[in-house]
Design goal:
306 residues; alpha+beta; Glucose Permease (Domain IIA); 2 domains; nine-stranded antiparallel sheet; three-stranded antiparallel sheet; 6 helices; 17 strands; 27% strand
């Protein structure tokens, strides 16, 4: 009950009152409704972006502003490839999304401590996933504002081997509204994508926030989350991605947490409160001779596990 009350209070605070919060909630519900004309769309979008949210860099959009038929289509837009050059040097793990770096650091065994003093264990963050390989690893927390591109991209040449959905709340993930008493990253609904690569395994934790009820994928998948319990799906055939490939989409702004296996010699390119774009380098991991090879996972379990 306390979490539900905090969810309401924080949403009311960020929107400036109950009436504005309700109006925002209605706006989220209507976001998928098509807007009939290009001229009206352009007018609405420039009222939203440049009014309520930061203005968009329209020259980076994958198509002209008026071509997006709904607010949801604009929320989930892509960016022209030439606007996001990839840093593809061997061993460079890339930023998975356009975002602001909320936190970056090294895990203390199985514990992650944020700059706001909130402590998480790997088991609490990675519910339903074997967290042991990531003890003492590196982490970075990326906050996506509503004005950011909402697509999430693969940080390295890798194979997606496991998808896990954890049901939960919709507390605000905006850093100023996070409270130590309510650890949002372990309380909120999230999807955990586990990858394996030549530089070790890593996970992307996609944390839903207020108003974000939809995480989708740009490829066919039989992964079907359940509403009330953890759903773990091990892909019978791992899906191969290259660095910079699109792997998932948020319906609105939220948070991505990147967690890697431990590497003592790893170098971080990130700083707190830094604005990043997908394709920018996040970490450097010295590579072995077989840098282009994919590590073989000996796990034998397959299919959906509830």
């Amino acid at each position: 009950m306390q979490v539900r009350i905090e969810q309401f209070r924080s949403a009311r605070r960020i929107h400036g009152g109950t009436m504005k919060m309700c109006a925002a909630a209605i706006g989220v519900k209507l976001a998928k409704v098509p807007i009939p004309s290009r001229r009206l769309r352009t007018w609405v979008y420039r009222k939203v972006y440049g009014g309520k949210y930061m203005a968009l860099q329209e020259n980076q959009l994958e198509q002209p502003l008026g071509e997006f038929r709904s607010l949801n289509a604009l929320f989930t837009r892509g960016v022209r490839a030439e606007c996001r050059p990839l840093s593809t040097a061997p061993g460079r793990l890339l930023c998975p999304c356009d975002s602001t770096v909320q936190d970056v650091g090294k895990l203390d065994q199985d514990r992650l401590l944020t700059v706001k003093g909130t402590e998480y264990t790997l088991d609490s963050l990675l519910a339903g996933v074997d967290a042991q390989p990531f003890a003492d690893g590196r982490f970075a927390i990326f906050f996506l504002s509503p004005a950011d591109c909402h697509r999430v991209f693969c940080p390295y040449d890798a194979e997606l081997v496991e998808m896990t959905h954890v049901p939960g709340r919709r507390l605000l993930v905006h850093p100023p509204y996070q409270r130590k008493e309510f650890p949002v990253f372990s309380l909120n609904e999230r999807v955990i994508l586990r990858f394996r690569s030549a530089i070790g395994s890593f996970v992307l934790v996609m944390v839903a926030g207020w108003g974000v009820g939809n995480i989708s994928y740009p490829y066919a998948t039989t992964f079907k989350p359940k509403k009330r319990k953890i759903t773990r799906y091990v892909l019978p055939v791992p899906r191969r991605f290259e660095a910079g490939d699109w792997v998932a989409t948020f319906g609105l702004g939220s948070t991505v947490i990147l967690i890697t296996e431990p590497r003592a010699e790893a170098v971080s390119y990130l700083k707190r409160d830094q604005t990043m774009r997908y394709g920018n380098p996040a970490f450097l991991f010295p590579t072995a001779a077989n840098d282009n090879a994919v590590v073989v996972d000996t796990a034998s379990d397959e299919g959906e596990i509830a």
